[in-house]
Specification:
By secondary structure, the protein is α/β, with parallel strands linked by helices. The chain has one domain: Aldolase class I (TIM Barrel, Alpha-Beta Barrel), CATH 3.20.20.70. Helix content is 46%, strand content 14%. It has 12 helices and 10 strands. It has helices at residues 4-17, 31-40, 47-58, 74-77, 87-93, 124-133, 154-173, 192-212, 239-253, 270-283, 298-308, 315-333; strands spanning 23-27, 67-72, 97-101, 106-108, 116-118, 138-145, 177-184, 221-222, 260-263, 291-296. Strand 7, helix 8 and strand 8 (221-222) form a beta-alpha-beta unit. The longest helix has 21 residues, at 192-212.
Length: 345
């Protein structure tokens, strides 16, 4: 059972991550994923290029005005700025709480073609202790659920929910806030209704396992997908339809004791993600028992990455784009975002 001091620590950290209408910046892409994004833009796929990109992010002026916490990857938490400060210390100096991705990736689920289960529980306690010593105060684990013909199976949902709950329990035992991320993928031609149905099944399973494992709901954050039609679906729903389907799904599944829900952006553009988050906070502000915020990666990073292209001379312009997208999402969390905030308006 988690000790009383650890329980108090995770509750306080969770509250700090949700303070002042801020959200999270996910900059925890694996080396493989980061290299893939760099390759598409002709950026060298080297550790120094990745370090330079992440230094650009961490040193963005005004980032802490909108971002309360940043999720790092193992490589990044061990890297340093050019001035010698570790990234974790630079973020803490900027009043941004440091987080760390701790799963080791999704692997094929035996006996279930097309489905995966996320690995990384082996020696997780030891790794969490080491990350905490490097400055981490929260962690993240992602479970991946695919929609398809006969998918997802109960086996896939159950395996991923169990892993998420065991990870969350280990985090809280050591005083780290677990970010619980069950992601129903946007890949496919499924409808918004189908996504909402699957997301509801997944969240029911996740919270059942969190209860079984004795995880304190007040000391975690949920990082789910929005209810969205598949990228190949013929009908792409309106912003309000997405907002309504998503929040109704959450109201049916997420206990009021959870302090906050920080959406992942998945395959959404920056503007799409801001619009949809904004609509939820406008339309349901008085009905939601938890804060609705963001934990975006691509929807914040991509405009800046497209400007930077590995060119240090464009760093300042890229930082401006990054800060702008973060500010738009902070506004969306308060239901105050509008198209007029965009430079093309």
């Amino acid at each position: 059972m988690t000790s009383a001091p650890a329980r108090r620590t995770v509750v306080a950290t969770a509250k700090a991550l949700l303070a002042a209408h801020k959200g999270l910046l996910a900059m925890d892409e694996s080396t493989k994923t980061c290299n893939k994004r760099f390759a598409a833009l002709g950026i060298p796929q080297t550790s120094e290029a990745r370090r330079a990109w992440r230094e650009l992010i961490v040193t963005t002026p005004g980032l802490a005005d909108s971002i309360s916490g940043a999720i790092l990857f193992d490589e990044t938490i061990h890297q340093q700025l050019k001035d010698g400060r570790p990234f974790a210390r630079a973020l803490a100096d900027a009043d941004i709480i440091v987080g760390i991705k701790v799963d080791t990736g999704a692997q094929a689920l035996a006996g279930h073609p097309g489905e995966t289960v996320t690995e990384g529980l082996d020696q997780l306690g030891d790794r969490l202790v080491n990350y905490a010593a490097l400055g981490a105060r929260f962690a993240k684990w992602r479970g991946v659920i695919a929609i398809g013909d006969g998918l997802p199976t109960n086996a896939s949902i159950s395996a991923n929910a169990h892993a998420l709950a065991r990870y969350a329990g280990l985090c809280q035992e050591l005083g780290l806030v677990p970010i619980v991320e069950p992601e129903v993928l946007m890949t496919g031609d499924h409808t918004l209704l189908r996504c909402a149905e699957v997301t509801e099944r997944v969240l029911h399973a996740v919270f059942e396992q969190l209860y079984v494992q004795g995880v304190q709901l007040e000391g975690l954050l949920l990082k789910p997908n929005m209810a969205l039609p598949g990228l190949a679906c013929a009908e792409q729903n309106t912003v309000d339809e997405v907002a309504d389907a998503t929040v109704m799904c959450l109201l049916r599944t997420v206990p009021a004791a959870v302090p906050g829900i920080a959406f992942l952006s998945g395959g959404q553009t920056g503007v799409q993600a801001s619009n949809r988050l904004n609509a939820m906070n406008q339309r349901f502000k008085k009905r939601m028992p938890w804060a609705l915020t963001f934990s975006f990666s691509r929807a914040i990073q991509y405009p800046a990455l497209d400007i930077w292209h590995g060119d240090s001379g464009k760093a300042q312009q890229a930082q401006h784009a990054l800060q702008h997208r973060a500010a738009c999402n902070r506004a969306a969390r308060g239901g105050e975002y509008s198209a007029a905030m965009e430079p093309t308006a």
